[in-house]
Design a protein that fits this description.
single chain, mainly beta, seven-stranded mixed sheet, 56% strand
Length: 114
């Protein structure tokens, strides 16, 4: 198993930036698929970004503004979020897939205000 701890969320103005971090309790070297999703109160979770091997994919709404990356040496996955919008206020969760099983963290809250 693996434990994932997200951090870096907070309160940010419209148009601002945050970098979310997801620290894993074990090596992520052999993990192929990782990603981030968001979930706002009363709404279904939405996939934000994935990284599979070296290939990244993004929800259409965040393309050009968000960047997912990984640092194997630090066992960490990142989500750089730029030009944030109020509708992106949500809890953000990272996940990894190990042996076809999904693991996720406790989430970090992002609040975008005007």
């Amino acid at each position: 198993q693996v434990q994932l701890v997200e951090s870096g969320g907070g309160l940010v103005q419209v148009g601002g930036s945050l970098r979310l971090s997801c620290s894993a309790s074990r090596s992520i070297f052999g993990i192929y698929h990782m990603g981030w999703y968001s979930q706002a109160p009363g709404k279904q979770r939405e996939l934000v970004a994935t990284i599979s091997g070296g290939t990244t994919n993004y929800a259409d709404s965040v393309k050009g503004r968000f960047t997912i990356s990984r640092d194997n040496a630090k066992d960490t996955v990142y989500l750089q979020m730029n030009s944030l919008k109020p509708e992106e206020t949500a809890g953000y969760y990272c996940y990894v897939v190990i042996n076809s099983r999904y693991y996720w963290g406790q989430g970090t809250q992002v609040t975008v205000y005007s």
